[in-house]
Amino acid sequence: MLKNEKAGYLYILPWLIGFIVLTAYPFINSFYISFTNYDMINESKFIGLENYVNLFKDADFIKSMGATFKYTFLTVPLQLAFALFVAFILNDKLKGINFFRTAYYVPSLLGGNVAIAILWRFMFQPDGFINRFMGIFGIHPVAWLSTPGGAMTVVVLLKVWQFGSAMLIFLAALKEVPGDYYEAADIDGASKPRQFWSITIPLITPTIFFNLTMQLVNAFQEFNGPYLVTGKGPLNSTYLASMFIYDHAFKYFHMGYASAASWVLFVIIVAVTLILFGTQKKWVYYSDGGGK
Amino acid sequence: MSNTVAIAPIKRKKKASEIINPIVRYAILIIVALVMLYPILWLFGATFKTNNEIFTSISFIPKRIDFTPYIKGWQTSTEYTFATYFINTFQIVIPKIVFCLISSLLTAYGFARFNFKGKSILFSLLMATMFLPTVVTRIPLYLLYRDLGVLDTYVPLIANTVFAQEPFFVFMLIQFMRSIPRDLDEAATIDGCGHFGILWRILLPTLKPAMISCLIFQFVWSFNDFLGPLIYITSLEKYPVALALKMSIDASSGVVPWNQVLAMSIIALLPALILFFSAQKYFVEGVTSSGIKG
Amino acid sequence: MKNMKKVIVALLALTMVGSLMVGCGAKKGSDSGSEKGGKAEIRFSWWGNDDRHKATQDMIDNFEAENPDITVKGEPSGFGDLEQKITTQIAGGTEADVMTLLYDWIPKFSSDGTGFYDLSKIEDLDLSTYDPEFLKFGQSNGIQNAVPLGKNVTGIYLNKSAFDRVGAEIPTTWDEYKEAAKKFPDGTFLVVCPTPRFAATLYLNQKTGLPEFDEKGELNYSEADYLEAMTWYKDLVDAKVFCSRQDYLENVGTEPVSIAQNKKFIEGGYVGVMEWTGGIASNEATLKEAGDELIVAPLPVIDGAKGAYTIAKPTMLLGIKKSEKNPEAAGKFLNDFCNGTKANEILGVTRGIPESTDAVAAVEAKGLITGAVKAGYEFAKEAEVINETPFYENGTLTAIYSQQMENVELGQSDLKTAAKELYNQTKDEAANLAVSYKLAK
């Protein structure tokens, strides 16, 4: 670790200035607003904890938090495993590998494109592609979009399908694994899967940790997927916390209430992240040899 | 536990079953690629379809091929063509990429390689800024930019990147730097390198794939950003592509020429596709030897 | 070592200066309503599709040619995330000088009538071309905040060709609807109701002769009324007249949206729609492309109705910014937009059929009202309407209906419980709204 304190500050100075000037104020402001009845138009009044108390009595909010947790714990492991697996396969010198990598990144490139909204509904409609495909194997058609479980599956699959960013980060990490390690393992006759588990995985744990953290943070704040395809979903099954917050902020003008909900979500994400950082010592291997 | 990296050799001969048949491998790759590419094929096909065809057919093959939607879409119903909107977009995206890469790299270096007082608190703050839904910070931020007199300019869209206020990139680079053994730094110090020299000559070359990913992400995300411009940009002549694309989408007011909208969104995908494709070489070349020797 | 430090400092400085340079490159934030060398510049914001953008820009060009001392800067947009944009702008006091508005934005942004410019103070604006009763849609707290542009009335529009194909007559009563539904193949529904609220209010309008809320935001309907309306609605869903919630979820989504671009509607699986007259144009265009004909159906009346009532609201409104510095120029433009003959010949029906007598005369003389749109116009003109308050546009209230009907259909609740929930939640939400709209008790 470089001991030069001044230089350390110097390097993070741009960020620190930006944090103070651009980020801190809106942040603190929204915290204050969460204790008011601010509606963006009229004068706001300080109402203490009222928003928070109401939130925990609001069945819609509780339900949306439940849906958010469900969504997060379904998408994150699935997408991560998928991204890592595909990145590993694509980290080879195959012919045409560039094409395949680009192809696999396309869904992420499309992001919130209107084509996705149309196509995903097509796929999962009663007579849609998925049901017809399952019909070949004699499986009864599933009411994907009109049952709570079905709708959740649709939005989870959408997220998993857009695994490109996580894949790209894994590819960059795999690229940094020194090739000599594999050469040594080859000489020793270790099988590919064995090499994957004992060389690749440990060496890219910092990246796995990064992807895991970011996926969690993003999944907790997911908005686009359900917004595009299922909306609130049957019985509000895909009405995620961020949609609740958006609705209250800009549809119903309860900015104070929306801010309170945001801060509850904030605390939950902080807690989950803290737990995650706590487990770091157990499984993340840093080549720089140091803790923090 | 993490020390298992020291390779435990397992004496075992390669079995035939472990060598995946290249045909099977390609077959899987191609099938998955089709699933991934289908939307873009459909999108491309849809640019030639009529509205009813678009909304009723899952097949990507249009009934006829006619490039009028591309021409009309490009011209738009406004006094500007998409050429203006593309130029505007690049005026936002290029500075964002440059600033983001520089500021995030410097900040990440500070956090990853230096010890200073309050570091863990500052790092927590950096992370925490990602945790609050942006919906509730948007208005105070808007008022701030209004008071600075920079509404209807690109400043509010770019300023964040100048000050490394996108923690995703900083955190990512921190993680990548921490996978680089420190012995290299020390060796370089002995050779007379200052800390900036270490960053420039030792870390940066190794970080190339990570920096390229950052570049791609920043490009794609800024290119697609709709909400930022929607709120900050009011003059038509300053609209970026993302805003122009959705400018005609209002089903409540009558017929939306969807094939034109989709044709332009295909065109808008091209820069990212080209960038991604050409950046590939940074992820493939020299997989077997990275030049890092401990 | 020391050199390196200098390099860093230089780099940092460069990064920051860079940001300032970007700032210099772009023009300073536009100061609206400004005077530039004796020439007034005003901003006009609206949402729409291509046709509307083009017509509006042409109208602006025409206005500028007729008024060389005024420049109008157009700010077109789509409909997506509109509320976020306008809210942010109004919170920042940076909204355009003249803007198109949705009905419930009037009480939202101007609960006491001071959120927008008082239009009665503008001499150049002639409002005598409007029915005084109709103008009330644009008032808040008795102050004319906006001009309601056109009238929207709820009606039922049917795919006549689909009826012809199965040999069914166009129904005129709900019983005839039930009979007609039997002639269509399984899975077909006669009328899509984007939210059960539409049908339920229509029923209760006719039953009671009253809107859902009075001017003070008090509920006019009782729990028993809601139960009756929901029972009636459910019965028609079971008879395949109204589209079931489950079917709507599968084929459309959760939110009330236009079905003009819906697969099932295009393919005749939905034979009609209950919607505002303003939606006729796009529905008609869609069916025309499929070779089918859309007609405006006669409005069915329930048994024991107080009248053949239907719901009315304004299509959209036009207002002027609260702190307008150039009310004369803005007023001149607004007047031309609402009443100008040339202007309305150019604008046509891209925002529906205008209510101003001058404007509608211009549009009619040019023969711009045709087909189902014309039928819809006649229908709206003849209809006995009940004017709904801005509460009717509230998303939460609509969601309560959809939610409760969904609970019933998906077996989470029965009609009685659902009606009770609907009544209680509506009442609570209405009370909240009354507070935020500052309605006098």
Short description:
The complex is a heterotrimer of chains A (292), B (294) and C (441). Chain A is an all-alpha fold and 292 residues long.
Quaternary state of the chains: heterotrimer
Sheet having the most strands of chain C: 6 strands, mixed
- The tally of helices of chain C reads 18
The 3D shape of chain A can be described as: flat
The CATH superfamily of chain A appears as MetI-like
Instruction: Please provide the ordered H/E string of secondary-structure elements of chain A.
Output: HHHHHHHHHHHHHH
Under the CATH scheme, which architecture of chain A would be assigned? Orthogonal Bundle
Total domain count of chain A = 1
Please state the structural category of chain A.
Answer: mainly alpha
**Helicity level of chain A, as a percent range?**
over 70%
Q: Could you please say which CATH topology of the largest domain in chain C applies here?
A: D-Maltodextrin-Binding Protein, domain 2
Could you estimate the helical fraction of the residues of chain C in percent? 40-55%
* Average pLDDT taken over every residue of chain C: 88
- In what range is the share of β-strand residues of chain A? under 5%
CATH class of the largest domain in chain C: Alpha Beta
End-to-end Cα distance of chain C:
75 Å
Q: Would you report the number of β strands of chain A?
A: 0
Largest interface, counted by CB within 8 Å of the partner chain's CB: A-B, 124 and 114 residues
In words, what does this structure look like?
The complex is a heterotrimer of chains A (292), B (294) and C (441). Chain A has helices at residues 5-33, 50-57, 59-90, 97-110, 114-124, 129-136, 148-161, 164-176, 179-188, 192-203, 205-220, 224-229, 241-251, 255-283. The longest helix of chain A is centred in the first third of the chain and has 32 residues, at 59-90. Chain A has one domain (55-283): MetI-like (MetI-like fold), CATH 1.10.3720. Chain A contains 14 helices and no strands. Chain B has helices at residues 22-46, 51-56, 68-75, 82-113, 119-128, 138-147, 155-162, 167-178, 183-190, 195-224, 227-232, 241-245, 258-279, 281-284. Chain C contains 18 helices and 13 strands. By secondary structure, chain C is an alpha+beta fold. Chains in contact: A-B, A-C, B-C. Chains A and B meet through helix 1, helix 4, helix 5, helix 8 and helix 9 of A and helix 1, helix 4, helix 5, helix 6 and helix 7 of B.
